[in-house]
Protein backbone atom coordinates (compact mmCIF):
# COMPACT_ATOMS: atom_id res chain seq x y z
CA UNK A 1 0.00 0.00 0.00
CA UNK A 2 1.22 3.51 -0.84
CA UNK A 3 2.27 5.43 2.28
CA UNK A 4 1.85 9.21 2.39
CA UNK A 5 2.66 12.18 4.61
CA UNK A 6 0.20 15.10 4.43
CA UNK A 7 1.60 18.58 5.13
CA UNK A 8 -0.78 21.54 5.47
CA UNK A 9 -1.17 24.30 8.06
CA UNK A 10 -4.96 23.95 8.03
CA UNK A 11 -6.29 21.20 10.30
CA UNK A 12 -9.40 21.08 8.14
CA UNK A 13 -7.39 20.55 4.93
CA UNK A 14 -5.17 17.92 6.55
CA UNK A 15 -8.26 16.00 7.61
CA UNK A 16 -10.02 16.28 4.25
CA UNK A 17 -6.91 15.34 2.25
CA UNK A 18 -6.14 12.42 4.55
CA UNK A 19 -9.71 11.13 4.33
CA UNK A 20 -9.62 11.32 0.53
CA UNK A 21 -6.33 9.45 0.35
CA UNK A 22 -7.40 6.78 2.86
CA UNK A 23 -10.63 6.20 0.94
CA UNK A 24 -8.51 5.86 -2.21
CA UNK A 25 -6.42 3.09 -0.68
CA UNK A 26 -3.45 5.25 0.35
CA UNK A 27 -2.22 4.98 3.94
CA UNK A 28 -1.54 8.34 5.58
CA UNK A 29 1.30 7.57 7.99
CA UNK A 30 1.65 11.12 9.35
CA UNK A 31 0.27 14.64 9.19
CA UNK A 32 2.25 17.84 9.66
CA UNK A 33 1.13 21.43 10.22
CA UNK A 34 4.15 23.20 8.73
CA UNK A 35 7.30 22.59 6.75
CA UNK A 36 9.51 21.81 9.73
CA UNK A 37 7.13 19.14 10.97
CA UNK A 38 6.86 17.84 7.42
CA UNK A 39 10.63 17.40 7.12
CA UNK A 40 10.68 15.56 10.46
CA UNK A 41 7.74 13.34 9.45
CA UNK A 42 9.48 12.33 6.22
CA UNK A 43 12.65 11.46 8.13
CA UNK A 44 10.70 9.46 10.73
CA UNK A 45 8.30 7.58 8.43
CA UNK A 46 10.11 7.30 5.05
CA UNK A 47 6.86 7.63 3.05
CA UNK A 48 6.37 6.85 -0.64
CA UNK A 49 4.97 10.32 -1.32
CA UNK A 50 4.30 13.68 0.33
CA UNK A 51 1.47 16.14 -0.31
CA UNK A 52 2.77 19.61 0.45
CA UNK A 53 0.94 22.89 0.95
CA UNK A 54 2.77 26.00 -0.31
CA UNK A 55 1.93 28.75 2.18
CA UNK A 56 2.70 27.73 5.77
CA UNK A 57 4.23 29.37 8.90
CA UNK A 58 7.78 28.77 10.18
CA UNK A 59 8.92 26.83 7.10
CA UNK A 60 6.89 27.14 3.91
CA UNK A 61 6.38 24.44 1.31
CA UNK A 62 9.20 25.60 -0.96
CA UNK A 63 11.73 25.52 1.88
CA UNK A 64 10.43 22.13 3.02
CA UNK A 65 10.78 20.68 -0.48
CA UNK A 66 14.38 21.87 -0.66
CA UNK A 67 15.20 20.36 2.75
CA UNK A 68 13.50 17.03 2.00
CA UNK A 69 15.26 16.71 -1.34
CA UNK A 70 18.60 17.40 0.34
CA UNK A 71 18.12 14.95 3.22
CA UNK A 72 15.51 12.31 2.27
CA UNK A 73 14.64 12.57 -1.44
CA UNK A 74 10.93 11.69 -1.73
CA UNK A 75 8.33 12.31 -4.45
CA UNK A 76 6.42 15.48 -3.48
CA UNK A 77 3.07 16.64 -4.84
CA UNK A 78 2.41 20.34 -4.27
CA UNK A 79 -1.13 21.48 -3.47
CA UNK A 80 -1.32 25.03 -4.72
CA UNK A 81 -3.82 27.87 -4.52
CA UNK A 82 -5.24 28.68 -7.95
CA UNK A 83 -3.79 32.20 -8.00
CA UNK A 84 -0.93 34.01 -9.75
CA UNK A 85 1.11 34.01 -6.54
CA UNK A 86 0.25 30.36 -6.04
CA UNK A 87 1.42 29.54 -9.57
CA UNK A 88 4.74 31.32 -9.11
CA UNK A 89 5.36 29.56 -5.80
CA UNK A 90 4.44 26.22 -7.34
CA UNK A 91 6.98 26.61 -10.14
CA UNK A 92 9.62 27.50 -7.57
CA UNK A 93 8.77 24.34 -5.66
CA UNK A 94 9.08 22.31 -8.86
CA UNK A 95 12.52 23.84 -9.37
CA UNK A 96 13.49 22.69 -5.88
CA UNK A 97 12.48 19.10 -6.64
CA UNK A 98 8.71 18.62 -6.33
CA UNK A 99 7.55 16.31 -9.10
CA UNK A 100 4.01 17.57 -9.73
CA UNK A 101 1.21 19.74 -8.40
CA UNK A 102 -2.55 19.93 -8.06
CA UNK A 103 -4.37 23.24 -7.91
CA UNK A 104 -6.65 23.52 -4.88
CA UNK A 105 -10.14 24.42 -6.10
CA UNK A 106 -11.48 27.35 -4.11
CA UNK A 107 -8.22 28.56 -2.55
CA UNK A 108 -5.92 27.61 0.32
CA UNK A 109 -8.68 26.26 2.57
CA UNK A 110 -11.09 24.64 0.17
CA UNK A 111 -14.35 22.86 0.84
CA UNK A 112 -14.39 21.94 -2.86
CA UNK A 113 -11.40 19.62 -2.83
CA UNK A 114 -13.57 16.63 -1.89
CA UNK A 115 -15.22 16.87 -5.30
CA UNK A 116 -11.78 16.42 -6.85
CA UNK A 117 -10.85 13.42 -4.73
CA UNK A 118 -10.28 11.08 -7.68
CA UNK A 119 -7.88 13.56 -9.26
CA UNK A 120 -5.96 13.92 -5.99
CA UNK A 121 -5.61 10.15 -5.55
CA UNK A 122 -4.53 9.76 -9.17
CA UNK A 123 -1.93 12.53 -8.84
CA UNK A 124 -0.56 11.04 -5.61
CA UNK A 125 -0.29 7.55 -7.11
CA UNK A 126 1.39 9.02 -10.20
CA UNK A 127 3.87 10.93 -8.03
CA UNK A 128 4.92 7.71 -6.28
CA UNK A 129 6.21 6.44 -9.64
CA UNK A 130 8.54 9.42 -9.95
CA UNK A 131 12.25 9.16 -9.31
CA UNK A 132 13.00 12.13 -7.03
CA UNK A 133 16.73 11.81 -7.70
CA UNK A 134 16.27 12.48 -11.44
CA UNK A 135 15.45 16.15 -10.89
CA UNK A 136 19.00 16.78 -9.71
CA UNK A 137 20.21 16.20 -13.26
CA UNK A 138 18.37 19.24 -14.58
CA UNK A 139 19.32 22.74 -13.47
CA UNK A 140 17.44 25.27 -15.54
CA UNK A 141 18.95 28.26 -13.81
CA UNK A 142 22.46 27.42 -14.95
CA UNK A 143 21.67 26.20 -18.46
CA UNK A 144 23.66 27.75 -21.30
CA UNK A 145 22.46 28.37 -24.81
CA UNK A 146 23.96 25.87 -27.20
CA UNK A 147 26.19 26.82 -30.11
CA UNK A 148 24.88 29.61 -32.30
CA UNK A 149 26.54 28.49 -35.52
CA UNK A 150 24.41 29.02 -38.57
CA UNK A 151 23.73 26.22 -41.03
CA UNK A 152 20.18 25.34 -40.00
CA UNK A 153 17.41 24.41 -42.40
CA UNK A 154 14.77 27.03 -43.17
CA UNK A 155 11.47 27.24 -41.32
CA UNK A 156 11.91 24.37 -38.81
CA UNK A 157 9.06 23.51 -36.44
CA UNK A 158 9.48 21.88 -33.01
CA UNK A 159 6.71 20.25 -30.97
CA UNK A 160 7.55 19.40 -27.34
CA UNK A 161 5.25 17.36 -25.10
CA UNK A 162 5.61 16.67 -21.37
CA UNK A 163 3.68 15.82 -18.22
CA UNK A 164 4.82 14.90 -14.68
CA UNK A 165 8.24 16.39 -14.01
CA UNK A 166 8.13 18.26 -17.29
CA UNK A 167 8.29 21.99 -16.45
CA UNK A 168 11.94 21.96 -15.37
CA UNK A 169 13.00 19.91 -18.38
CA UNK A 170 11.01 22.03 -20.84
CA UNK A 171 12.69 25.13 -19.38
CA UNK A 172 16.08 23.50 -19.77
CA UNK A 173 15.42 22.52 -23.38
CA UNK A 174 14.06 25.88 -24.53
CA UNK A 175 16.75 27.86 -22.72
CA UNK A 176 19.38 25.86 -24.60
CA UNK A 177 18.06 26.63 -28.10
CA UNK A 178 19.76 29.52 -29.93
CA UNK A 179 17.63 32.17 -31.60
CA UNK A 180 19.67 31.56 -34.77
CA UNK A 181 17.92 28.20 -35.22
CA UNK A 182 14.76 30.21 -35.99
CA UNK A 183 12.41 27.49 -34.74
CA UNK A 184 8.65 27.73 -34.46
CA UNK A 185 8.05 26.03 -31.11
CA UNK A 186 4.85 24.44 -29.81
CA UNK A 187 4.89 23.31 -26.16
CA UNK A 188 2.26 21.01 -24.67
CA UNK A 189 2.71 20.61 -20.92
CA UNK A 190 -0.07 18.86 -19.02
CA UNK A 191 -1.08 21.72 -16.74
CA UNK A 192 -4.37 23.37 -15.70
CA UNK A 193 -5.67 26.73 -16.85
CA UNK A 194 -4.27 29.53 -14.73
CA UNK A 195 -0.80 28.01 -14.67
CA UNK A 196 0.06 27.79 -18.37
CA UNK A 197 0.24 31.57 -18.75
CA UNK A 198 2.74 31.84 -15.90
CA UNK A 199 4.68 28.93 -17.34
CA UNK A 200 4.89 30.74 -20.70
CA UNK A 201 6.17 33.85 -18.90
CA UNK A 202 8.91 31.81 -17.24
CA UNK A 203 9.96 30.27 -20.55
CA UNK A 204 10.00 33.72 -22.14
CA UNK A 205 12.36 35.03 -19.46
CA UNK A 206 14.64 32.01 -19.61
CA UNK A 207 15.06 31.54 -23.35
CA UNK A 208 16.02 33.55 -26.42
CA UNK A 209 12.58 32.84 -27.89
CA UNK A 210 9.48 35.02 -27.61
CA UNK A 211 7.15 32.75 -25.64
CA UNK A 212 3.46 33.32 -24.88
CA UNK A 213 0.40 31.33 -23.95
CA UNK A 214 -1.53 30.18 -27.01
CA UNK A 215 -4.63 32.07 -28.13
CA UNK A 216 -7.14 30.90 -30.69
CA UNK A 217 -6.26 32.06 -34.21
CA UNK A 218 -2.75 33.38 -33.50
CA UNK A 219 0.09 32.88 -35.95
CA UNK A 220 3.70 32.29 -34.99
CA UNK A 221 6.87 32.55 -37.00
CA UNK A 222 10.56 31.93 -36.50
CA UNK A 223 11.92 32.67 -33.05
CA UNK A 224 8.49 32.38 -31.46
CA UNK A 225 7.01 29.76 -29.14
CA UNK A 226 3.57 29.09 -27.70
CA UNK A 227 2.45 27.06 -24.70
CA UNK A 228 -0.85 25.19 -24.99
CA UNK A 229 -3.47 26.88 -22.81
CA UNK A 230 -4.72 24.82 -19.89
CA UNK A 231 -8.05 23.05 -20.54
CA UNK A 232 -7.74 23.58 -24.32
CA UNK A 233 -6.35 21.35 -27.04
CA UNK A 234 -3.88 23.19 -29.29
CA UNK A 235 -4.09 22.25 -32.96
CA UNK A 236 -2.10 23.46 -35.95
CA UNK A 237 -4.82 24.79 -38.25
CA UNK A 238 -2.65 26.03 -41.08
CA UNK A 239 0.88 26.62 -42.30
CA UNK A 240 2.19 29.01 -44.92
CA UNK A 241 5.08 31.38 -45.57
CA UNK A 242 6.90 29.95 -42.59
CA UNK A 243 4.10 30.75 -40.14
CA UNK A 244 1.86 28.43 -38.14
CA UNK A 245 -1.78 29.21 -37.40
CA UNK A 246 -3.06 27.90 -34.06
CA UNK A 247 -6.56 26.77 -33.20
CA UNK A 248 -7.73 26.11 -29.63
CA UNK A 249 -10.60 23.72 -28.97
CA UNK A 250 -12.39 22.24 -26.01
CA UNK A 251 -13.04 18.94 -27.71
CA UNK A 252 -13.26 15.96 -25.37
CA UNK A 253 -10.10 15.20 -23.36
CA UNK A 254 -7.78 12.68 -24.99
CA UNK A 255 -6.04 10.13 -22.73
CA UNK A 256 -7.91 11.91 -19.95
CA UNK A 257 -6.07 15.20 -20.54
CA UNK A 258 -6.64 18.54 -22.21
CA UNK A 259 -4.39 19.83 -23.69
CA UNK A 260 -3.18 16.58 -25.24
CA UNK A 261 0.23 16.17 -26.87
CA UNK A 262 -1.21 13.92 -29.58
CA UNK A 263 -3.60 16.61 -30.82
CA UNK A 264 -0.78 19.09 -31.41
CA UNK A 265 1.66 16.58 -32.88
CA UNK A 266 -0.86 14.94 -35.19
CA UNK A 267 -2.15 18.24 -36.57
CA UNK A 268 1.42 19.50 -36.99
CA UNK A 269 2.27 16.36 -38.94
CA UNK A 270 -0.76 16.95 -41.14
CA UNK A 271 -0.31 20.67 -41.79
CA UNK A 272 3.42 21.41 -41.66
CA UNK A 273 5.20 20.64 -44.91
CA UNK A 274 8.59 21.94 -43.75
CA UNK A 275 11.15 20.45 -41.35
CA UNK A 276 9.40 19.05 -38.27
CA UNK A 277 10.79 17.65 -35.02
CA UNK A 278 8.75 16.02 -32.25
CA UNK A 279 10.06 15.54 -28.71
CA UNK A 280 8.45 13.70 -25.80
CA UNK A 281 9.70 14.29 -22.28
CA UNK A 282 9.06 12.91 -18.80
CA UNK A 283 5.50 12.13 -17.80
CA UNK A 284 2.86 9.56 -16.91
CA UNK A 285 0.68 7.87 -19.51
CA UNK A 286 0.73 7.29 -23.25
CA UNK A 287 -0.09 10.75 -24.61
CA UNK A 288 2.40 11.59 -27.35
CA UNK A 289 2.96 8.08 -28.70
CA UNK A 290 0.46 8.48 -31.55
CA UNK A 291 1.79 11.97 -32.20
CA UNK A 292 5.36 10.69 -32.51
CA UNK A 293 4.12 8.05 -34.97
CA UNK A 294 2.37 10.74 -37.01
CA UNK A 295 5.45 12.98 -37.13
CA UNK A 296 7.66 10.04 -38.13
CA UNK A 297 5.19 9.01 -40.85
CA UNK A 298 5.25 12.59 -42.18
CA UNK A 299 9.04 12.43 -42.54
CA UNK A 300 9.86 14.37 -39.38
CA UNK A 301 12.50 13.70 -36.74
CA UNK A 302 11.57 12.25 -33.35
CA UNK A 303 13.27 12.29 -29.95
CA UNK A 304 12.50 11.00 -26.45
CA UNK A 305 13.97 11.67 -23.02
CA UNK A 306 15.82 8.75 -21.47
CA UNK A 307 14.68 6.82 -18.40
CA UNK A 308 17.56 7.88 -16.15
CA UNK A 309 16.69 11.60 -16.26
CA UNK A 310 12.90 11.22 -16.49
CA UNK A 311 10.95 11.75 -13.29
CA UNK A 312 8.35 9.36 -14.70
CA UNK A 313 9.33 7.20 -17.68
CA UNK A 314 5.81 6.72 -19.04
CA UNK A 315 5.29 9.04 -21.99
CA UNK A 316 8.80 8.51 -23.41
CA UNK A 317 8.58 4.73 -22.92
CA UNK A 318 5.24 4.45 -24.75
CA UNK A 319 6.63 6.53 -27.62
CA UNK A 320 9.78 4.42 -27.82
CA UNK A 321 7.67 1.26 -27.93
CA UNK A 322 6.11 2.45 -31.22
CA UNK A 323 9.47 2.02 -32.92
CA UNK A 324 9.17 5.57 -34.29
CA UNK A 325 11.66 7.36 -32.03
CA UNK A 326 14.90 8.24 -33.81
CA UNK A 327 17.00 8.91 -30.73
CA UNK A 328 16.79 8.74 -26.94
CA UNK A 329 18.72 11.35 -24.98
CA UNK A 330 19.17 12.66 -21.46
CA UNK A 331 17.53 15.92 -20.38
CA UNK A 332 20.85 17.71 -20.82
CA UNK A 333 21.32 16.36 -24.34
CA UNK A 334 17.84 16.96 -25.77
CA UNK A 335 18.60 20.53 -26.86
CA UNK A 336 21.67 19.49 -28.87
CA UNK A 337 19.76 16.56 -30.35
CA UNK A 338 17.01 18.95 -31.53
CA UNK A 339 19.57 21.16 -33.26
CA UNK A 340 21.14 18.11 -34.90
CA UNK A 341 17.77 17.33 -36.53
CA UNK A 342 17.65 20.74 -38.23
CA UNK A 343 21.24 21.04 -39.42
CA UNK A 344 21.41 21.98 -43.08
CA UNK A 345 22.58 18.93 -45.02
CA UNK A 346 22.26 16.51 -42.11
Automatic annotation (TrEMBL):
* Posttranslational modification: Phosphorylated by CheA. Phosphorylation of the N-terminal regulatory domain activates the methylesterase activity.
Q: Where in the cell is it found?
A: Cytoplasm
Q: Which residues form the Response regulatory domain?
A: 3-119
Mention any Pfam family matching this sequence: CheB_methylest
Ranges of Acidic residues composition bias in the record: 134-146
Q: Which InterPro entries match?
A: CheB-like (IPR008248), CheB_C (IPR035909), CheY-like_superfamily (IPR011006), Sig_transdc_resp-reg_Me-estase (IPR000673), Sig_transdc_resp-reg_receiver (IPR001789)
- Main subcellular location: cytoplasm
Segments carrying the region annotation (Disordered) are 126-152
| Active-site residues, Swiss-Prot/TrEMBL | 163, 190, 287
Record bears the keyword Iron: no
Single GO BP term: chemotaxis
The entry's keywords: Chemotaxis, Cytoplasm, Hydrolase, Methyltransferase, Phosphoprotein, Transferase
EC no. given is: 3.1.1.61, 3.5.1.44
| Annotated GO MF terms | methyltransferase activity; phosphorelay response regulator activity; protein-glutamate methylesterase activity; protein-glutamine glutaminase activity
Where in this protein does the record say 4-aspartylphosphate is found? 53
EC class = hydrolase
Q: Where is the CheB-type methylesterase domain?
A: 151-345
* Domain comment in the entry: Contains a C-terminal catalytic domain, and an N-terminal region which modulates catalytic activity.
Q: What HAMAP family does the record point to? A: CheB_chemtxs
The task this protein performs is described as: Involved in chemotaxis. Part of a chemotaxis signal transduction system that modulates chemotaxis in response to various stimuli. Catalyzes the demethylation of specific methylglutamate residues introduced into the chemoreceptors (methyl-accepting chemotaxis proteins or MCP) by CheR. Also mediates the irreversible deamidation of specific glutamine residues to glutamic acid.
Provide the family line. Answer: Belongs to the CheB family.
The identity of this protein, by name, is Protein-glutamate methylesterase/protein-glutamine glutaminase
Q: Which species is the source of this protein?
A: Halorussus gelatinilyticus
- The gene it comes from is cheB
Amino acid sequence: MTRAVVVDDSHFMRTVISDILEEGGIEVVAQASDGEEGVEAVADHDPDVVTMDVEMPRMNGIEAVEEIMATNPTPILMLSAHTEDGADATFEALEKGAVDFLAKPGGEVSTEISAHGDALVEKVESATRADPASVEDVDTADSDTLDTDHGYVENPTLVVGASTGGPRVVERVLSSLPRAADLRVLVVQHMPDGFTGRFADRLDRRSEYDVREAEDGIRIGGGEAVVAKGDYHMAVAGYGNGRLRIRLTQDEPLHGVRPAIDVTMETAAEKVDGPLTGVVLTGMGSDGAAGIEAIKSAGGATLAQDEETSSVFGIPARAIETGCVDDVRSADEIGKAILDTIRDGR
